[in-house]
Structures are given as structure tokens and as C-alpha cells.
Design goal:
single chain, alpha+beta, Aminopeptidase, 2 domains
């Protein structure tokens, strides 16, 4: 049975994806078992997210089969409980990851004293932040993160500096009684320090709230070393051109 923190992490993630889409002017839809977006989502964001586990997998697969017939183009599905088989619908697994969680009183991430942190507050700052986060990716005509996100007190974009040099950053998102940390990036080889600082910021501005997220590979190892616990697996499925990280 899924833990309460896992269910909260899944719900938080769906609410976050919906907030990103809503800030672009097109929120998605929630049902009892799925979040979905019929018109297409910003780059790196899925078109559907499962909200419940294996006992509703058949229902979710049938809903996704109907959804992908509604328009042409690529599709991405975040299989939050790694419970679906979407291969018969033409999907393939892009990656597998682990949901992560840590209780507020367990957060003791070491801080790097050379880093100073700034909360992004203006549209111009957000534009520069997104360009740094997406460095190396092809330029996009439309930004992923729109200015209305900055007006939500439960969402915080952070940048870390050493002196005047940007070193990295990430996003905090408080919904469903947890704070998700995501989009962690480092300009140099300091991602572990950036993640640790971001988690400390979560403890400061959202005190007493568990922190969640998901990672794979070296990022998963770094998070576990900071005290996070693995909550359960997830998969991201893609169909056609959705070669993105969601």
C-alpha cells in the first residue's frame, strides 16, 4: 500500500504540472485517477499523470488510449506508481526513477557557506533563471515558466550565487501538505551542494513541512545521501517525439 507521503508527492507533482500549464493560460483536468491535458503541455511536461496505483491501472490505460486519439503529435505519461503497460499503445519507457521524501525534523542538509541564495521575484529574473537552467538545450520560442508562477506564495524559484556568479538553482512547490524540490541545476560540478541548499531553503520558508521529489541516477544517490528515503518507483512513458524529462 502506498504511504501517505508517496500519495502526497504524487498529488503535489500533478498540481505543480497543472500550475505550470495554468500560468501559460491552459490548465489541465483532474479526475479521480488521472491529471491530463488535452491540448499539449510545455516542453518537459507530461500530458497525463496517474494519481492512483495498480488497482486502477486498467482504467487509466483505457483513458490514455482515448486521450491519444484526440489529437496528433507526441505524448508523455508520468506513471506515478510504475503500474501501467503502455507499450501496446505505442509508448516506450523514457526513464525510471524513485520518489523521495524526508520529514521536516530530519532535514540536516549541510550548507555551503560560499553560496548565497536569492528568490526570483521578477519576470526578467525568471527569464534569466530559465535560460541558466536550460543551458545546452535548443532555444525555445515560448518560455516554460510564466510570470504568474512568481505571484503564488507557495511556489519559489531560487538561484544560488558565489559572489556575483550564478552557480545553480531549483524550484520549491508547496502543495498537498508537502514541499517538492525540483529542477535542481548546477553551472559547475556542485549539484549536491545546490540540492542541499535548496532543501535548507525549503525548511526555512515552509517550516515543519516534509520535502519530496523524485530522481534517478547520480541525482538519486545524492538525495539519499542527504537523508531522503525512497518512497516508490515511477516511470515516464513517451510516444513519438516526447523525448523529454518530466
Amino acid at each position: 500500500m502506498a504511504s501517505e507521503m508517496l500519495r502526497a508527492a504524487v498529488r503535489n507533482n500533478a498540481l505543480w504540472c497543472n500550475a505550470v500549464c495554468e500560468a501559460q493560460g491552459g490548465p489541465g483536468e483532474f479526475s479521480a485517477t488521472l491529471w491530463l491535458h488535452r491540448q499539449g503541455t510545455p516542453r518537459f511536461y507530461p500530458d497525463a499523470i496517474t494519481l492512483t496505483g495498480g488497482d486502477t491501472a486498467r482504467e487509466q490505460e483505457e483513458a490514455i488510449a482515448v486521450l491519444i486519439r484526440s489529437r496528433k503529435g507526441g505524448w508523455g505519461v508520468k506513471d506515478s506508481y510504475a503500474a501501467l503497460n503502455l507499450a501496446p499503445l505505442g509508448f516506450e519507457i523514457l526513464f525510471e526513477a524513485e520518489w523521495l521524501g524526508i520529514e521536516a525534523d530530519k532535514i540536516h542538509a549541510p550548507e555551503d557557506p560560499s553560496l548565497t541564495w536569492k528568490r526570483i521575484a521578477t519576470a526578467d529574473e525568471l527569464d534569466l533563471w530559465e535560460k541558466a537552467w536550460g543551458a545546452g538545450d535548443p532555444p525555445q520560442a515560448t518560455p516554460i515558466f510564466a510570470e504568474p508562477l512568481l505571484r503564488n506564495p507557495d511556489i519559489a524559484f531560487f538561484a544560488a550565487f558565489e559572489g556575483k556568479a550564478l552557480e545553480g538553482g531549483g524550484i520549491l512547490n508547496r502543495q498537498a501538505d508537502v514541499v517538492a524540490h525540483s529542477n535542481v541545476f548546477a553551472i559547475k560540478s556542485r549539484k549536491r551542494a545546490i540540492r542541499a541548499g535548496l532543501v535548507q531553503k525549503a525548511a526555512e520558508i515552509f517550516p515543519g513541512t516534509p520535502v519530496v521529489g523524485y530522481e534517478h541516477g547520480d541525482d538519486l544517490s545524492d538525495a539519499l545521501e542527504l537523508g531522503f528515503t525512497s518512497l516508490g518507483p515511477l516511470r515516464v512513458w513517451v510516444r513519438s517525439e516526447r523525448l523529454t524529462e518530466m
